[in-house]
Amino acid sequence: MRKLVFTACCLLMFGTAAFTQQQKQPPTVRDYCVKVASDKSADFETFVKEVGVPLNQSRADAGEFDWYAVVRAVIPAGSSAKCDYRVVYGYKGLPPETPSSEQMDAALKRAKINMSAKDWAAKRDALTQLVDVEIWSGIDYAGTGMGKGSYVRLNHYNIKPGAMEDWQRLETTYWKPMVQAYLKGGGKGTWSVNTLMMPEGDNLPYNAMTVDSFSDWNSLLQGISFSLWSKVHPNTEATDVFDRLDRVRSRANIEVYKVVEMVNRSSN
């Protein structure tokens, strides 16, 4: 499956291609958080559509990454929001270095965009301000994929020292089957579990994330019904599982985004 992560992710933040036992490297996501002046949002989205999409289709098809997505902040939004947009690149394994000017010149030429890498960077920087960059490692995944117009919910967590494996096990043992039952019942979307690779440090607001994507707004608001719990886990009380989760993690925040544009590597 070649769809976004935001697990970030999930991701990535936002969706990943595959989680297999044979995979030597975990799938990863490079996530750029950017701010855009309020009167420049339309210009930025036009730039993404007219330049970002063909450019990154060219780069994806050349094997530089597996998918690319631009998502717009829904909640929180405005001047108090950390990110107005997230620009996300998904990889099947560990991410490469950021491309050189020569590599970007070649990609622009392949995409038949009459612009140099210097001109492209100048236009990007005139429209956006980079807030930060995060690299996420994918742990587990389930879903039918996501695309333009989908809604993505990033659930950021602070996992307590020494509890990362316990948290991952609880998520994959109890919540993943809920997602699978939701999908089997006709739901559409993705779910992933992700850990923060970079940056690192004790003072970070979060170090892990689950990512939920839904095909439309109503599906996002309705979420996955807890009526499924008794069917999926008939011998386990939900309150017991959530008590165990509360002992290993705290929720830092929840962010919701809408996918503005998305590119997947061509299969041929």
Describe this structure in words.
By secondary structure, this protein is of the alpha+beta class. It contains 7 helices and 8 strands. An 8-stranded antiparallel barrel has the order 1-3-2-8-5-7-6-4, surrounded by 4 helices. The two termini are 14 Å apart. The radius of gyration is 19 Å and the shape is globular. Helix 4 runs antiparallel to helix 7. The chain is 31% helix and 31% strand.
Going across the major beta sheet, what is the strand order? 1-3-2-8-5-7-6-4
Helix/strand order, N-terminal first: EHEEHHEEHEEHHHE
Structural class: alpha+beta
Distance between the termini: 14 Å
Overall, the morphology is globular
The fraction of residues assigned to DSSP E strands is 25-35%
**What integer is the average pLDDT?**
90
User: Number of DSSP helices?
Assistant: 7
- β-strand number: 8
Fraction of residues in helix: 25-40%
**Most strands sheet:** 8 strands, antiparallel, barrel
Instruction: Report the radius of gyration as a whole number of Å.
Output: 19 Å
- The parts where pLDDT drops under 50 for at least 5 residues are 1-13, 15-22
